[in-house]
Amino acid sequence: MLKSLYIQNFVLIDSLDIQFENGFSVITGETGAGKSIILGALGLVLGQRADGKSIQKGSDKCVIEAIFDISKYQLEPFFIENDLEYDSDTCILRRELFSSGKSRAFVNDSPVGLGILKELGTRLIDIHSQHQNLLLGNTHFQLKVVDVMAENEILLIMYKKEFSRYMGLKRELKELEAKAAQTKQEEDYLRFQLGQLEEAELNAGEQEELEQEQEALAHAEEIKGALYKISQLLDGEESGCVQLLKEALSTAESIDRYYPKAKEIAERIRSAYLDMNDLASDADSQKEDVEFNPGRLDWVNDRLNLLYTLEQKHRVSSIEELIAIRDDCHKQLEEINSFDEQIAELNRLISVSYQELLQQAAVLSAQRQIAAQRISEELVRMVTPLGMPNARFQVEVSPKEEPDADGLDLVRFMFSGNKNGDLQPVEQTASGGEISRLMLCIKAMIAGFTALPTIIFDEVDTGVSGDIADKMGSIMRRLGEKMQVFAITHLPQIASKGKAHYYVYKQDLEEKTVTRIKRLTKEERIKEIARMLSGSSLTEASLANARDLLSDN
To answer: Which ranges of 389-521 would DSSP assign to H, the alpha helix?
Structure first.
């Protein structure tokens, strides 16, 4: 419920801070006093778009803040989903508009986008105006009314879950069939690619080894000559360093008896001599292993050319990447071979889900048929006293060809205001006044089955008076026993039914005119209802009549 509304610098409102209570409240005031301005401010804090023109002249910023009691609305999932701070009792919506045209929105002091503010707003307040009466002809709204009366909430949750699964399976099948069709077109090419890559018998690291071998084979003579030269320089009979080291070792050993340091020199020379001797032996041995092999070089060149050709074709630069492509071809061909099995399994799951969907839809349909009959009878009973004695109303529930997110039922509200008139869709035959009364009765009817948000009836009593207005007021008052209800009205019969009465008026200040709102005392209320009965000139008769109206309530 709406606990309070604060407005600052909005159109004709310089500052307004009003508290509200539960039950049925009425709002009255002379035409042009500013009731629509208050509704406009409320609309902005509920997420409607605005511009800088809404700001009071001479101000740079306006602020609108509404505080709600949300203890009965079970809104925690919404707050969690949108990452908002949740208070199980109170919710504060605030909107700030700037003369530059920019605006900011907040939920519990956390900044939010207008989309979130608007979605939350629809769960908190339902502003029922002449424009909203168009909803009565909306098939989705009609179905929602039937489901509320049928108490289908749990059934719908189960059905929608299965429908989501069913549609997910169908999407998966469609994607798989498209993928299968595309890959089957590529199957021959994949097999050709795979054949080439498998025939190449690829081995990781092979390319680097072959490139090194190619270099060695291509320069065999140079390598052999270089190794021979190394061997001669190390261990040649005339000038090899091994022989020189051997001679140096003998010389060092010849003086170690009388020069002790010569022993260390001798050890170092011996170590060098042994290393050089081994190195000379290795060079000579490797020289013998190097041979010029034209046949092997041709094979290595051919093998490398094959690898280079495959790499160029597949736009890669290594055997490892070619191996990855080969393995991917394997995988794709395995998928192609398994597509038929996957498609068959998906079709089986879809069939099972579809049958489950039909069964759940049948249960929904049965509940809706019962509720449809109940709504038809109850609504006629409620609207007959509201100046519609010949009204006939019927909720038609007909099957659709295929189930959708709402089930298998197409719901239409059929109406006739004349005794012998044919039933036709309500939006085609009911007048504006008839639709207003039908909507009032529908909302009163469903209020006992679901936690409705606060309802504001904005002059839905237009075109009625007297006894009909009195009965409409009684419906609103009974509705107020279940929830918070406001009625903006010009009719004293409705105004007298309110538990609380708020009066909107203009006040002329020295420099400007402003809109004010106040809750009327008992005596002020008698005078306001008397004014509504007789006009600006209060008479004893109108005052007495006002007291009678209030005493009856």
So the answer is: 426-429, 432-446, 466-480, 492-495
